Structures are given as C-alpha cells and as structure tokens.
Amino acid sequence: MTIVRKFARPLLATSFIYNGVVRFRSPEGGRYLTPALDAAAKARPELRALKGKERLIAQSIAGTQIAAGSLFALGRFPRLSSTLLLATGAINTYIDYRAAPTSTKEEKEARLGQGLKNASLVGAVALSSVDTAGNPSLAWRASKFGSDVRKKSSQLGDDLKKKSENVLHH
C-alpha cells in the first residue's frame, strides 16, 4: 500500500465512521426514508414489509457505514468497503439534505454547504471504489484466466494430436 493510501483511507473513513455512530445512536433521521420506502413498496410488492421500519433501516445503514468505514480505514476489502460507503453515504446525504432546516437564508446556505461536503465525500469514496491499488481488476483477471485456459487447451490439443499421430504411425 502506498503512503498516500495508508493515510488517505483512514482520513476519508473517519467521517463515515463518526456519522455512522451518531446515526446508530439516534436514528430519528430515518423518517426521511419514508417516501423512498413507499416508492420501493409500490415498485416491488415484496418490499412492503419495510414500511414502518424506518428506524431499523436507518440503524442498519448506520451499522453498515461503521463496519465498512472501519474496514476501509484498515485497508481491508477496500473496493467492497468503499462501495458500501458509497451507497450509505448517498443515502445519508439525501437524509441530511431533507432534514436540514430551511426557514432562513443562513439555514439554506448551511444546508447547501453540508450537502456539497457530503457529495464531495461520496465522490471521493466513489473514486476509491474503483481504485485497484496498482493491482489488476477482477474483470481483467477473469479475462486473463480465460485467455490462459484457451491457450493451454489449444496446446494440450496440439500435443494430444501429435502423440496420437505418433502412436498410429508406429
């Protein structure tokens, strides 16, 4: 792991871990999930069971954020953990934006500033989710494996053909 990754991942993760702990302790912001859950229940009938469980869902999102942030800070499963942070961060950005007061000009400016900060964090973690740390991606590895199998199969077929010709001609 490069020195930049060694310091940048924990720095980026701290905000997500902290917000996850705060939201886990007081998941009242989950009430802002109601419109999204209603829409999901209309689209997929099997999701109707989620209606009325906004608090539980908010705590689940917070727990996921704490776990993913911790793994990301430690450099464990960085692409998976950053992808989870991307999803939970986007949801929390939406909740924060909806929950922010907007009765005065200052409150509106604070809401905008907080929204932009949250969007920036989501963008940073989105970049991290595609960072391969100098290692090939899973797609490249799968393609390389398929290519190697084809090459070995072709070589094996050619060898088998030569040996069978030798046996038949002798």
Automatic annotation (TrEMBL):
Domain of life from the UniProt record: Bacteria
Region (Disordered): 147-170
Species per Swiss-Prot/TrEMBL record: Rothia santali
Annotated Basic and acidic residues bias: 158-170
Protein name listed in UniProt: DoxX family membrane protein
